[in-house]
Amino acid sequence: MATASALPLSHHLVRLAALLALTQAFPATAETYTNLTQGTTLTPLRPTTFWPSPSGDFAFGFRPLDSDASLFVLAIWFNLTSPQAVVWFANGDNPVQAGSKLELTSDGQLSLTDQSGNEVWSPGVSNATYAALLDSGNLILVSSSSSSSLWQSFASPNDTLLPGQTLLAGSSLRSRLTDLDYSEGRFSLVAQNDGNLVLYPLALPAGNQYKLYWSTNTAGSGSGSRLVFNESGSLYYSLTNDTQIDIFSTGGSYSTKDFYQRATLDPDGVFTLYVYPKNASNGQQKWQVGGIKPTDICTRIMNDYGSGSCGYNSYCVSNGDDQKPDCLCPPDYSFIDSTRKYLGCMPNFEPQSCEHNETDLFDLEMLDETDWPLSDYEHYINVSIDQCKDYCRTDCMCAVTIFNSGQCYKKKLPLSNGRQTGSFGGTALIKVATGNANSLPQPPSSTVTVEKKDRKSLILVGSLLLGSSGLLNMVLLAVISVNVLCRYGNRRPIKPVSSMSGMNIRVFTHRELEQATNGFSEELGSGSFGRVFKGSLALDSRTWIAVKKLDRLLHDSDKEFTNEVRSIGQIHHKNLVRLLGFCNEGVHRLLVYEYMSNGSLKSLLFGSERPQWNQRTKIALGIARGLVYLHEECSAPIIHCDIKPENILLDDNFVARISDFGLAKLLRTDQSHRTNTGIRGTRGYVAPEWFKNVPITAKVDVYSFGVMLLEIICCRKSLGRGVGNEEVMVLTYWAYDYYREGRLDLLVENDEEAMADVSVVERFVMVAMWCIQGEPFLRPSMQKVIQMLEGAVAVPAPPDPSSYGSSIR
C-alpha cells in the first residue's frame, strides 16, 4: 500500500522513531506528544482528547458534534484554521458519548469503544507499534518490523482529499448527510475501474446509484487511472497513458506553502476545493471556495427517480459566482426540517380535496424561471397563462402548473428535480390556499385548548343550560364565550384574518400586528415611508417578520391602497424582499415583510470590519439581478427611485434583497411627485435628470446602482468629509480620478483579497463609471450591467462622468 504523504515513509519513520525514543516512557498529552503508543488512550473528555501533528497543523482525536456537544466523532481536522474543518472521521454513523475511549492495545490493535465497552470502529489491523499523525494530515499505523505502514487514513477517505493524497481506481468519496451530520450522505465521487471519474446521486438509505451528473468522460482509459492531489496543491485525474485532466482550473493560484487546502464532496453534491490563507490578516483568514465541480448542479441532476439536487417539493437555486446551490421552498410551503433540507418541503395548508368543490378556496402564485421538469401528468398547447391557471385551479389533483410559451404542464405532489435558472423562460404557478384555508399552522394543542378543570366547569354549566329558558341560555353562552376569549385569547398564535380574493398576501388586523410586535416595541429602522418594527407571526414558532407603519400616504381610499398593495404582493424574486401581508384598518396602514436577519448593506459595508471581496461581488450581482426583474421581467415594470445601501437587506445567507420597491406611489403627492423642490431618492444617489425637466426612466435606478457599486467596491460612503471635515468628498469623483491614474490599489486600500482579483476590480469600477454617466442614454440597462459585471461582454473605457454635471445638490 503506497503512502501519499509529502515525504517518503522511510523519512517519517526515522523522524518518528526519534520522537518515540523521547516519549515512550511517558503518558501522551495533547500539548507535548504526537505518537499514540501501545497501552495509551484517548477519551472524549480530559485529560487527553486529541493529539496534534508535529507542526500543529492537524489534530487527531475526539471532536464534539456541533449539533449535540454530548456526542463525539473520532476525527482528523485542521487545527489552526477557523473553523477547524474536519477532513477524516471514523464513526460518522455512530457518534459516541463520554466514557468512550480510543486505545492502541498491547497487541497493536487500534480500537474505538463506546461507553459500554462495545467496539465501534477499528481499522482491522494488528501488531502496530504505534500510531502517528503526520503533518500531511495522514494518520498511520506503524510496525517496528515493517518498512511500510500497516494502515493509513489517506487510503480510507470519507468526503475529503488532502494534498499528498490519491484516490485509486475502485475507491470513492461519500458526502456527509449535512454539514452537522457525519452520516453517509446522498452523493458519491467514484474513481471507476473503467477509468472514468464520476459523481453520482444516491438513493437513501439503500445507497444505490442514480444516473451520473458529472464525469471526466474517460471510460475505457484503464483501471490504473487515479485522482491525484499532489503536494504542491494541484488536483488532477491521471490516466494510464499519463494524461492529466485538471479538476479545478486554478492555474497554480494556490500553493500549499501559502494556503491550507482540502477538496471535499459537500452534502449538496458539489465537489469543492477549499483554500485558507496561512499568513493573511485575521479578517481575511477564512475558508474560501477555490473551485467547484460541477458548476451548475441545479440543472445537472435529472433522474426519473429520487428528488434531485434538493428535496421533494423544493427547488434548487445557485447563489453567486461560485454557483454553490441552495434549496428553497415554494410560496406557502415550509421545510419538513430546516436543519435537514434534503427532506424537502410540505404545504402550510390543507391541499385541495377532490371530495368537495373547493375551487374558490385556492389560487396560484407565480414563481419565475422555476421548473420541476419530471412531474408532468397533463400537457396543453396554445393556451394563455390565465387558461393554464384555471386548468390547475379546477383540477383537485393539480398542485403546480408550468406555463412556458403557450404550453401548460400540470404536476402532482411530490415534485422532484426542482430548479430555478435564468435559462428556463417559463413560470411556475403554485396552488396555494386563500381565505381562512390559508391560516398559519396552529401551535401545540396545549396553547389553544381549554384546560381540563375548565372543561369540567363548562360541562356543568352546559347541563344547567339544558334546563333553563332559551333567553337565559343565550345570555349565559355569551358570558361564557367572553370569559374564555379573555382568558385564552393572549395564548393563541397571531394569525391573519383572511387573504383578499385574488391576492397572494394575507390581511391582518391592527390588533394582531400590535401583538406580533409586542406593541411596536423593537424598531428596526425608519425612512421616508415610515418606521419598521420587528415581530413574530406565532408565539411558539418564532416566524420573524418586519412590520412597516406607513406615513404620508397618497391614496386615501381603501380601494386605491389595496390595489397598490395587490400589485406589490404579486412580485416575487430571490433578490427582492417579499411582502407577506398588510393591514388596512381605519387610519392604520401597515405592510408585513419577511424579516432579514443580517440587516442592511449599509451596516455590512460601513461597519468595523470590511466584508470579503467575494461576498461583496455576489451582493452587487444580486442587487443587479433584482433590478433587472423590477425593470424588465415583472408584469408591471417598476422604477424603484431610491436605491441605496439602507434599502438593500441581507437574508440568513447574506443574499442581497431589495426592499421598498413599488412604494413610491404610496407617498403623498407633495413627497412623491417630482417638482422643483421635491425629489424622490436620497442625496448622493439621485441621478442628474431629477433636477431637469426631462422624463424619469429606469435609468435613475441605474445611476443609483452605479454609486452604490462604488461603495461596495471601496467600502466608502458616497458622500464623506475631506480634509479638516469641511470639504465634501464625492465618491464618484474620487473613484474616477484614481481609476484614470491607474491606482486601483487606492480604491481598495489594504484589501489584499480584492487586489488578488484586480482584473475584476477594474471591470466593476468601469461598469460603475458607465452607470453614473450624466446623460441617461449613455447608461447601460441593468441587463447589460449584469453581462458586463459577469464578463460576458467587454467593457469599453468609460468617459469622465463629471463632465455631464453633478447630481450632488
What layout of secondary structure does this protein have?
Blueprint: H1 9-23, E1 35-37, E2 41-42, E3 50-52, E4 58-64, E5 72-78, E6 86-89, E7 101-104, E8 110-113, E9 119-121, E10 130-133, E11 139-142, E12 149-152, E13 160-161, E14 165-167, E15 172-176, E16 184-191, E17 197-203, E18 208-209, E19 214-215, E20 226-229, E21 235-238, E22 244-246, E23 259-265, E24 271-277, E25 288-293, H2 297-300, E26 315-319, E27 324-328, E28 333-335, E29 345-347, E30 362-368, E31 370-371, E32 376-380, H3 385-393, E33 400-404, E34 407-411, E35 419-420, E36 427-433, H4 452-466, H5 470-488, E37 498-499, E38 506-507, H6 510-516, E39 523-527, E40 530-536, E41 544-550, H7 558-569, E42 579-585, E43 588-594, H8 601-605, H9 613-633, E44 648-650, E45 656-658, H10 669-672, H11 699-714, E46 719-721, E47 728-730, H12 731-740, H13 744-747, H14 752-755, H15 758-771, H16 782-789
Parallel strand pairs: 38-42
Antiparallel strand pairs: 1-10, 2-7, 3-4, 4-5, 5-6, 7-8, 8-9, 10-11, 11-12, 13-23, 14-20, 15-16, 16-17, 17-18, 17-19, 20-21, 21-22, 23-24, 24-25, 26-27, 28-29, 30-36, 31-35, 32-34, 33-34, 33-36, 37-38, 39-40, 40-41, 41-43, 42-43, 44-45, 46-47
Helix pairs in contact: 9-11, 9-16, 11-15, 12-15
GO biological process, one term: response to other organism
Subcellular location: Membrane
Binding site for ATP: 549
